[in-house]
Amino acid sequence: MRIVFVGAVESSKIALEALIGMARAPALVVTLPPELAGRHSDFADLGAVARTAGCAVCYTTDINHPAVLEAMASVEPDLTFVIGWSQVCRKPFRDVAPLGTIGFHPAALPRLRGRAVVPWTILRDEDVTGSTLFWLDDGIDSGPILLQRLFTVAADETAQSLYAKHTTNLSEMVIEAATLVETGNPPRIEQDHDQASYCAKRTAEDGLIDWNAPAGSVLRLIRAVGAPYPGAFTFYGGERIRIDAAVPLENSGRFIGLAGQVQCHSQRGFVVLCGDGACIDVLAWASATGRRPPVHGKFDRHAPEACARD
Fold first, then answer.
1. Are the CB atoms for 13 and 170 separated by under 8 Å?
2. What are the start-end ranges of the E strands in 33-127?
3. Which of 140, 174, 219, 228 could form a disulfide with 42 if both were Cys (CB 3.0 to 4.6 A apart)?
4. What are the tens digits of pLDDT across the range 150-202?
5. Residue 218 in contact with residue 211, Cβ under 8 Å?
6. pTM
7. Which residues have C-beta within 8 Å of that of residue 87, sequence separation ≥ 6?
8. How far is it, in rounded angstroms, from Cα 306 to Cα 141?
9. What is the C-alpha R_g of the chain?
10. Contacts by 256-262, CB closer than 8 A, 24 or more apart
């Protein structure tokens, strides 16, 4: 079976390597040019991996472009995988491979269709999620399901740990999917569209911490938008500080102060009061200057230039 593989992020690389490792190297890999790596926080260069395995490589920013369709048709594919590519696959693209086009979504479809699904899963405090391979159609994440693995979201789940669970599932599921397609009767389970929910796009600036929020909400944001995403951040003394890890502080009610105020230094970092009167203990942070932990001051709600405009 001849495969075309499309992708440009870390999960794409993991799925591609899994196919190559099981002697299912794609005939063609379509990916983003390395000079456009900044488009994705988790970008992965698939070109070297593909060429080492003997795959042809096509670089593009538009998988629906006639030149891409021509490159795909030239290898006469049976099946296409689209793993980690943020663009609608139009019908001419999907029609190139006669057995169909399979996409991946890091959620239990039909729930949480759309963008930034890993952060939204944590921000919404979901108990259960899933990794889904599905047949692409005219909609967004709306096609029939081929394979789905459900699993529990841990109470202390981070973006990185959740991302790793999905990629582990994906590395196994792409092989299973290829095998099912070869059988000639792969599953096509229609989604219950009445149960669908939709995730909006997120940007790096959505990681700004609102210290007036409850401590639990601040901690969820820190866990949800950390690596491989840009991270949660705040401002102190005119400097942007990224907060990478924090935990609830026991007996935090003994601290009295303002929301966003640094209360003291802790054994590993510093303590900040949140809007509900509870505190978090910041364990890992980073800034451009690599400064020491903030002293007894208050984090700013905006960057200095934003404050000047208000």
1. no
2. 56-59, 79-82, 101-105, 113-114
3. 228
4. 999 999 999 999 999 999 999 999 999 999 999 998 999 999 999 999 999 99
5. yes
6. 0.90
7. 62, 63, 64
8. 37
9. 22
10. 258/298, 259/211, 259/212, 260/211, 260/212, 260/234, 260/298, 260/299, 260/300, 260/301, 261/296, 261/297, 261/298, 261/299, 262/293, 262/294, 262/295, 262/296, 262/297, 262/298, 262/299
Domains and CATH numbers, the chain: 3-199 (3.40.50.170), 204-309 (3.10.25.10)
Give CA 151 to chain center in angstroms: 17
Residues 70-109 pLDDT 10s: 999 999 999 999 999 988 999 999 999 999 999 999 999 9
Q: Closest by alpha carbon to 271, among 239, 240, 297, 249?
A: 249
Q: Is 69 exposed, middle or buried (0-12, 13-18, 19+ CB in 10 A)?
A: middle
